Automatic annotation (TrEMBL):
Binding site for beta-D-galactose: 90-91, 189-191, 255
GO biological process, one term: glucose metabolic process
Protein's UniProt name: Aldose 1-epimerase
Claim: Isomerase is one of the keywords in the record: yes
Length: 359
């Protein structure tokens, strides 16, 4: 499996980096990627994933991500269903940071802090579709201007969603600062329920997270700056176990960044590494996630509350899980965390690969 992943990564990073800036699609539309009985729907509003349909162990097809019935509902969304999050995903404490001696003030859209890029993040803008090949991939681009949501510098951003091999979805995110250094931390905020989006809670899903540390947070979910070993604690998923198996000790559910146990190459760059594996015993569906980022936010949809979804569904607490590969939250204010600052002439590169099977 590892050799297949590296082959996929090579083709993504080398073979598909040259995109045509055709700008042929300017309206808000929905695009479907289909290969066999595996399909993904995406809209260029927020570069948002609308659905992921795949078979269970008996061949029954289900949509395994939460979402809304219409694209218009995403415009007033507060859950970030399926969105491409940026310029900086997750939280920035006190809605401010300092870079090269200059202080920057951001929108305080989450209890005095900045969440997921501010009040109008990348999930709330219209992206331009560069290329679309229905059985292969779609690429989308967005130009974030200097000062947008308080962040310095103009940034050219694009994302590619690709069907690779059998029942694999790869997401490639690339961002290039054009004139000033700036923090960049993109994430895909997809809510998963492998039994089907309208099948109840995910507490019986079995999860394994390949991270032995977390970045603990305060009451407002801002990292303290510490990196904490969690082996033997309720946060320990180094061996597979049910998501809800220790919920009595985590009464508010999980919403925490895991430090993935990864290796770097001789240049200090992260290898693509296995982040997590999730199995739903009822449907038999299994999802493996690989990435090149050092952290992953594990979130058990603690804040869902009778949210009206697609196909007449009503989503309640713990009805989905999120695994958002990322840099560490609030890295701009913690110098011991891996830096998210990208310089002009450099590229931010973020790769995610989902592999779906049944067991």
């Amino acid at each position: 499996m590892a050799s297949q992943i590296f082959t996929i990564c090579f083709s993504i990073l080398i073979g598909l980096v040259l995109l045509k800036d055709v700008g042929a699609y300017s309206d808000i539309n929905v695009y479907e990627l289909v290969k066999g009985n595996f399909s993904v729907k995406i809209t260029n509003y927020g570069a948002t994933v609308l659905s992921v349909i795949l078979p269970d162990k008996n061949g029954k097809l289900d949509d395994v991500i939460l979402g809304y019935e219409t694209v218009d509902e995403y415009k007033t969304d507060s859950t970030y269903f399926g969105g491409l999050i940026g310029r900086v995903a997750n939280r920035i404490g006190h809605a401010r940071f300092k870079l090269n001696g200059v202080s920057y003030k951001l929108p305080a859209n989450d209890h005095g802090n900045t969440l997921h890029g501010g009040s109008v993040g990348f999930n709330d803008v219209v992206w331009t579709v560069d290329e679309y090949v229905r059985d292969k991939y779609i690429s989308l681009r967005y130009l974030s201007h200097d000062g947008e949501q308080g962040f310095p510098g103009t940034v050219d951003v694009y994302v590619m969603y690709m069907l690779v091999g059998t029942n694999r979805l790869a997401i490639k995110m690339v961002a290039k600062p054009l004139n000033r250094p700036t923090p960049i931390n993109l994430a895909s905020h997809t809510y998963w329920n492998l039994a089907g989006h309208n099948s109840g809670d995910i507490l019986s899903h079995e999860i394994q997270i390949f991270g032995s540390h977390i970045t603990p947070v305060d009451q407002k979910l801002i990292p303290t700056g510490k990196i904490l070993n969690i082996e033997g604690t309720p946060f320990d998923f180094l061996k597979p176990r049910a998501i809800g198996s220790r919920f009595k000790e985590i009464p508010d559910g999980y919403d925490i960044n895991y430090v993935i146990d990864y290796q770097t190459n001789k240049h200090g760059k992260l290898h693509v590494h296995k982040v997590a594996a999730v199995h739903d015993p009822t449907s038999g569906r299994k999802m493996e996630l690989w990435s090149n980022k050092p952290g992953v936010q594990f979130y058990t949809s603690n804040m869902l509350n009778t949210t009206k979804g697609k196909n007449g569904a009503t989503y309640n607490t713990y009805q989905a899980f999120c695994l958002e590969t990322q840099g560490f939250p609030d890295s701009v204010n913690h110098h011991n965390f891996p830096s998210q600052v990208v310089q002009p002439g450099e590229k931010y590169k973020h790769l995610m690969i989902y592999r779906f099977t049944t067991v």
